[in-house]
Amino acid sequence: MGPREVAARAVVAARIHRWRRVLEEAGAAGAMTAVWLPRRRFIPVLPDQALADVPAAARKKLLATADELMAGRAEYFGVARDDMVAPDWSWDPRTGRNAPTDRYAFDIPYRDERAVGDIKQLWEPSRHQHLTILAAAYALTGEEQYADRVAEHLRSWWAANQPLRGVHWVSGIELGIRLISWVWIRRLLDRWSGAADLFEDNPEALHQIWHHQRWLAALGSHGSSANNHVIAEAAGQLVAACAFDWFPESPGWRAAAMRLLDDELHNNTFASGLNRELATEYHGLVMELGLAAAVEADAAGVSVPDTTWLVLLRMADTLAAIVDVKLHPPRQGDADDGHGLIVDGADGNRWASLLHTADVLFGRQSWWPATPADDVRTPLLATLTNGPKIDTIRPAERPGHLADAGMTILRTAPGDDEIWARCDGGPHGFLSIAAHAHADALSLEVRHGGVDVLADPGTYCYHGQPEWRGYFRSTIGHNTLQLDTKDQSTSGGPFMWIRHARTKVLVAQASDHGPCRWTAEHDGYAKGREPAVHRRAVHLDRERHELTVYDEVFAPVVHTCRLAYHLGPQVEAAVEGNTAKLSWPDHTAELALPSDLTWAVHRGEENPPLGWYSPSFGRREPSTTLIGTGRAGGGRPGPFITVLRFHR
Questions:
Q1: What is the Cα–Cα distance from 573 to 636, expressed in whole angstroms?
Q2: Longest distance between any two alpha carbons in the chain, whole Å
Q3: CA count, 13 A, side-chain hemisphere, 644
Q4: How many CB atoms lie within 10 A of CB 493?
């Protein structure tokens, strides 16, 4: 941290200390009292046409999810709950622990499972995105049972989570996303007779909304932690200050949030349009947050800078460029399945929905994949804005190489047998701590017809399980080469890296026509003055449906090495010597492994972890991992060569 960040953190620490004293002096009266304006209305409502434009299939899926919630059933990060009729907002169903609700928020060690339980299990329901689903069900059906349940949950949450007390007041990203949910709940309940009594005429709601915005204005993220969290904070503040403009501070909060959102969207996004965290799920989260905030501001008549729309447009073009034939993007870096706004039912394709929204707002390029119009969010967002008018040059052809992000996609023509390969030659992560990065330099991810063949393992967990957190972001957990049983980059904690591998792309030929070749190298294994460079080349032969990988280590001394290939969960492998025959439903392939390494098969091992795949946050399942051990460097002639042949 530099001097400026240290000073800023000192100011925040002083505010936190002062707020504790004020809270203690207030005693039973609670935190500082909000002041609101006398004449309050909720103006940015949905026109009738927006609800009429929701496709029948999307409506059916939404109502099915809403009815599950009405029955009390939900699932968060692999943990099923049946208590959602009247949830305990402080209870973690995974560990069975209850977090304290009466302590000053910043005195609670919220990352300590022994003290509070699994904080992700606590936070996720309190984002109130299950309530936006119920509110959308009311808007589409007019059935008041949905609205009544929403009101019960909100009143329960407000009563149980007084300002600055408990774990739900610790993290700004939670407050920001919760504000977006509240705005959309109010919008979707507008035709319900109790909407005004629940929000603008309810002192408890006004008190909560004011304190959420006051928190964000005073304690927002900055410096080395200004990643997706600061986007959520700015977006939540902007959305609330536009739609809930019921406070004397609203104009100031609105203007500051608009400036912050514009600045941080640029800071968090490469010029190519990819999110700088190099964690694809966070690209989706930031894009959702940015679109929700920009559309809200536009609906309120607030001028949205062209620069804000331009970043969102570039994010959309980049997303369209990197998805596979099933409209799924790479599984790169951390992923906690976080969303900025949820008004769709379960099992939808988030990425297809985002591309559909971007298509409506910005217009599609000719090379974009076809995106089905089968979501709820797009017609609702689209009716709140006339759409941006941006005069800019967009890619005339699908880009296969994003130079600033170091991401290269090699692929064959789209279709059921599309070969899609992501090659990682980018920076380690974003900002000095690179919080959501993995030690995955030069890693490879390969799909066939949208099926993971050589798979990125995913994330699985953040808190409370350090061995699993370490494995899923380790070098050996990815499809790349490890030297001396070390990670390429050095971890300083579950959300911090203290040394970053430096990567350089040497060759990137990845257009839809012509050669498909990529070469890159990194120096993550160098020690002091002793160099060590891992160089990898990948060639895709479109005609032969064959992918060849060359791995070489340039170092003056010999190193032990392990070359890892992680197969997707649908792929079975029969290994004989250095040949692995792969199969998955209706498909086969052959993986010819380097014969100068000794190969072993690992699956579902726990001590230490090896052979796992995480399909979503909180879930893991056994998968097959092939590990080749040997020696590299010290003048060893030639590369290790791997050939993956797909059978037609």
A1: 30
A2: 80
A3: 23
A4: 12
Q: Is 29 left (phi over 0), alpha (psi -120 to 50) or beta?
A: alpha
* Rounded Cα distance, 175 and 100, in Å: 18
Written as six digits, the tokens of 290 are: 């940015």
Contact 259, 202 (CB under 8 A): no
Instruction: Please report how many Cα atoms fall inside a 13 Å half-sphere around the Cα of residue 191, on the Cβ side.
Output: 16
Quote the tokens at residue 153. 């949950």
At residue 566, the 3 state secondary structure works out as strand
Please, are residues 24 and 238 in contact by the beta-carbon 8 Å criterion?
A: no
The residue type found at 7 is A
Classify residue 576 by burial, with Cβ atoms within 10 Å: 0-12, 13-18, 19+: exposed
d(CA 126, CA 572): 40
- Provide, rounded to the nearest whole percent, the portion of the chain with pLDDT above 90: 91
Q: Please tell me the distance from the alpha carbon of residue 182 to that of residue 433, in angstroms, as a whole number.
A: 32
Closest CA to 482 of 550, 559, 563: 563
Q: What is the DSSP letter of 103?
A: S
Element (H, E) at 312: helix 306-322
pLDDT tens column, 226-281: 899 999 999 999 999 999 999 999 999 999 999 999 999 999 999 999 999 999 99
Residue 486 Cα distances to 480, 490, 612, 613, angstroms: 12, 9, 19, 21
Per residue in 520-578, pLDDT (tens digit) is: 999 999 998 899 999 999 999 999 999 999 999 999 999 999 999 999 999 999 999 99
Q: Give the dihedral sign, CA 320/322/328/332.
A: negative
Give me the residue label for tokens 């699985």: 460
Residue 557 to residue 576: CA distance in whole angstroms: 31
Distances (CA, A) of 572 to 460, 590, 622, 645: 22, 11, 11, 15
Q: In angstroms, rounded to a whole number, what is the distance separating the alpha carbons of residues 96 and 84?
A: 15
Give the phi and the psi of residue 593 in degrees, each rounded to 5. -95, 155
Among the listed residues 403, 395, 423, 402, the one whose alpha carbon sits nearest the alpha carbon of residue 411 = 423
Taking the C-alpha atoms of residue 315 and residue 405, their distance in angstroms, rounded to an integer, is 12
**Pairwise CA distance, residues 50 & 121, whole Å:** 33
What pLDDT was estimated at residue 31? 65
553: part of which helix (H) or strand (E)?
A: strand 546-554
How many Å apart are CA 279 and CA 269, to the nearest integer? 12
The DSSP code for 70 is: H
CB 478 within 8 A of CB 565: no
Paired tokens of 45: 């409502």
Averaged pLDDT for residues 440-454: 98
Q: First CA to last CA across the chain, in angstroms? A: 54
For the record, the structure tokens of 615 come out as 């399909």
In angstroms, rounded to a whole number, what is the distance separating the alpha carbons of residues 434 and 536? Answer: 23
Residue 409 CA to residue 405 CA, distance in Å, equals 12
DSSP code, position 630: E
Helices (H), 87-227: 113-116, 119-123, 129-141, 144-160, 172-188, 195-198, 203-219
Which residue intervals of 71-128 are DSSP H helices? 113-116, 119-123
CA separation for the pair 321, 317 (Å, rounded)? 6
**Prediction pTM value:** 0.96
Tokens of 527: 């020690």
d(CA 469, CA 491): 11
